[in-house]
Amino acid sequence: MINVLMIEDDTEFAEILSEYLAKYNIKITNYEDPYLGLSAGVKKYDLLILDLTLPGMDGLEVCKEIVAKYDIPVIISSARSDISDKVVGLQIGADDYLPKPYDPKEMVARIQSLIRRYKKTSGEEQQSSQSVFVVDEKRHEIFFKGNALGLTPAEYEILSYMIRQNGFSISREQLVYNCKSLKDKGSKSLDVIVGRLRTKIGDDSKNPEYIHSVRGIGYKLVG
Q: How far apart are CA 34 and CA 58, in angstroms?
């Protein structure tokens, strides 16, 4: 579960985004008042989504205060279209800037990307020495528990993408888009490939240990 602090005075927008992100195991706690948000125990959250137009305090000031006090990734989410706001926000320490309106799928991707980046910089590499999956990009091979898997190009692309997203729910669209060698873009081909991967790692489709089906979304790899 990714715990996200959100400071956003548009409660309807916050509720819609919260419901969508919950499908990807991302929980949002929103505060309309920036002062309440700043006193909400920022350290216990994994990421901050910050609006700029807030009651009583400009979002850029909130960003400056958060960056000065906490080591937390910050995504500015704002309808303000002035390019100077974006430039200043990034200069004072925001990690990303997503102008409204946007597709919530893009917010999911940006959250996951930032979380991965922060994990890497703090020494929490997803492919640690304890991981059962290791990708050798130069040889175009994937090792499972120390043994090389004999994979087709499509199987390699799907599994390597799952490994990069380890622990996160991945939509079927994401998987198809990132598998350039998948000739048939339909869902049946994807299901066949996932089935073959499960067979090659000895994963039971009815009670999987590594490749889990996520209802209404796609798949999630744990390992």
A: 9
Q: In order of start, what are the domains of the chain with their CATH numbers?
A: 2-121 (3.40.50.2300), 133-221 (1.10.10.10)
Please name the residues in contact with 54: beta carbons below 8 A apart, sequence gap of 6 or more: 7, 9, 33, 34, 62
Number of other residues whose CB lies within 10 A of the CB of residue 17: 23
The phi-psi region of residue 3 (left if phi > 0; otherwise alpha if psi is between -120 and 50; otherwise beta) is beta
**What are the tens digits of pLDDT across the range 169-218?**
888 888 887 788 776 656 678 889 999 999 999 998 888 999 999 888 88
Q: What kind and span of H or E run contains 189?
A: helix 187-200
pTM above 0.85, yes or no: no
Report angle CA 208, 25, 165 to the nearest 5 degrees.
65
In sequence order, which ranges of 7-103 are alpha helices (DSSP H)? 11-22, 34-38, 59-69, 83-91
Amino acid at 66: I
Please give the C-alpha separations between residue 75 and each of 26, 92, 93, 160, 198, in angstroms, as whole numbers.
14, 12, 10, 27, 36
